[in-house]
Design a protein that fits this description.
7 helices, 171 residues, mainly alpha, 0% strand
Length: 171
């Protein structure tokens, strides 16, 4: 059985890395806003770590025989969750950077949401396990993760003043 590489957004991730390396507008956008990007990614890392821990605890609670598989699965959940959350956030950030570079105000204040890879649905399983093990923690972390783009847009001062590009300066 062959899994399409777009299922997990690998093509999008490759393009994103290329734009970070070679695309001056996106790289500059991220560098100028590191004070916003780093805390946003930290929230997603916290969600991923909680999902990984909840996976181990969830399997251990089911049966002592499932404790070892749960602990072996936890690192994969950590890496996979962090990858998917970070990918979707950075794809959103790339679209936002493009809109700002073109002199547009991001639609609705936060901008256009990216296409989420179908593999992101796999993130729901660890989130459901997190909700089963620690419901309050799950509620707080999911709310925090959902608020990240809103807070980012709120504190992004660069979005309020459109950049003056060469074509706009010539007019």
């Amino acid at each position: 059985m062959k899994i399409d590489q777009d299922f997990f957004g690998l093509k999008d991730a490759g393009n994103l890395l290329a734009h970070l390396r070679e695309g001056e507008p996106f790289r500059a956008h991220v560098q100028e806003r590191l004070r916003l990007v780093v805390p946003a990614l930290a929230v997603y890392a916290l969600v991923a770590a909680a999902c990984a821990a909840a996976t181990a605890v969830f399997f251990a609670d089911l049966s002592s025989w499932l404790t070892l598989p749960g602990f072996l699965l936890a690192p994969a959940v950590l890496v996979g969750s962090l990858y998917l959350e970070g990918l979707v956030f950075l794809l959103w950030l790339e679209r936002r950077a493009l809109a700002l570079a073109l002199g547009h105000t991001p639609r609705g204040g936060i901008g256009e949401l990216p296409r989420v890879p179908p593999g992101a649905l796999l993130l729901l399983v660890p989130l459901l396990m997190l909700g089963a093990v620690w419901p309050l923690v799950a509620l707080v972390l999911v709310a925090a993760a959902a608020l990240v783009p809103l807070l980012y847009a709120r504190f992004d001062r660069g979005a309020r003043k459109p950049r003056l590009t060469r074509s706009r300066a010539a007019v």
